[in-house]
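Deliverable D4.2, example record:
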Amino acid sequence: MMVMKRVLAVAAVAITGCSGKPSISQVGYYQSAARDRVFTARMTEGATVDEAKKYAETRPYTEGQMTSVYLYPSNATIPADGITLATSIDRANQALEGSAMSPWKFAFMHYRNGNTEFVDCQASRNELCR
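Output generated by the structure prediction step:
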């Protein structure tokens, strides 16, 4: 019995990680009737580029539509309700560009043609960056 409890405890730590907290958490989410999607997410201090990319790549995507993911540093002002309560993709994009909002650190786009792009906005002047 005691061995089983230890095995379960070790498994729980392995599944959730040492801290038990995810390094990236969703803040805002918009989905249009056509299933275009916009996500905003907060990265904890110490979250890696690989974690950011994996998080972005695993967001839902519908073939023929687009999914965009914007990842922000931990201390950023991130659009939440402006994204989640948007009535159109244009409104969601307007919320991203709000003057009170912080710039995102990473941007990811899963395009309608199936191609993907992940950009480090602190190291690039890519059009996906603010």
